[in-house]
Specification:
Homotrimer. Keywords: Nucleotide-binding, Phosphoprotein, Transcription, Transcription regulation. InterPro entries: N-reg_PII, N-reg_PII-like_a/b, N-reg_PII/ATP_PRibTrfase_C, N-reg_PII_CS, N-reg_PII_urydylation_site. This protein is α+β, with helices and mostly antiparallel strands. The protein is built from 2 helices and 6 strands, in the order E-H-E-E-E-E-H-E. The radius of gyration is 17 Å and the shape is elongated.
């Protein structure tokens, strides 16, 4: 099992969710986060004062999946979240030792 963690632009969340649903992904966890990479933030003027916005709003999507669908999930996210501009985000894939469904006590792939 793997934990796929994607950090994407907020306005792409609905597209990513729909694309994942089409390939059979039934659940995900979404968090609103802030961060920066090469984008390095930007400068804005607010009420006549200039200030730097270092951390830009992003959305982090966590999806626990079986090993046999990891590549499909990663490809689906990268296609759906891509704008072609800097700041599109990143996808991380981490090993997942175990998953337990609290309601039934099922574990492993059955809990997914």
């Amino acid at each position: 099992m793997k934990l796929v963690k994607a950090i994407i632009k907020p306005f792409k969340l609905e597209e990513v969710k729909e694309a994942l649903s089409e390939i059979g992904i039934e659940g995900m966890t979404v968090n609103e986060v802030k961060g920066f990479g090469r984008q390095k933030g930007h400068t804005e003027i607010y009420r006549g004062s200039e200030y730097t916005v270092d951390f830009l709003p992003k959305v982090m999507v966590d999806i626990a999946v079986s090993d046999n669908v990891v590549s499909d999930v990663v490809k689906t996210i990268t296609v759906a979240a891509k704008t072609g501009k800097i700041g599109d985000g990143k996808v991380f894939v981490q090993p997942l030792d175990d998953v337990i469904r609290i309601r039934t006590g099922e574990s492993g792939d059955e809990a997914l």
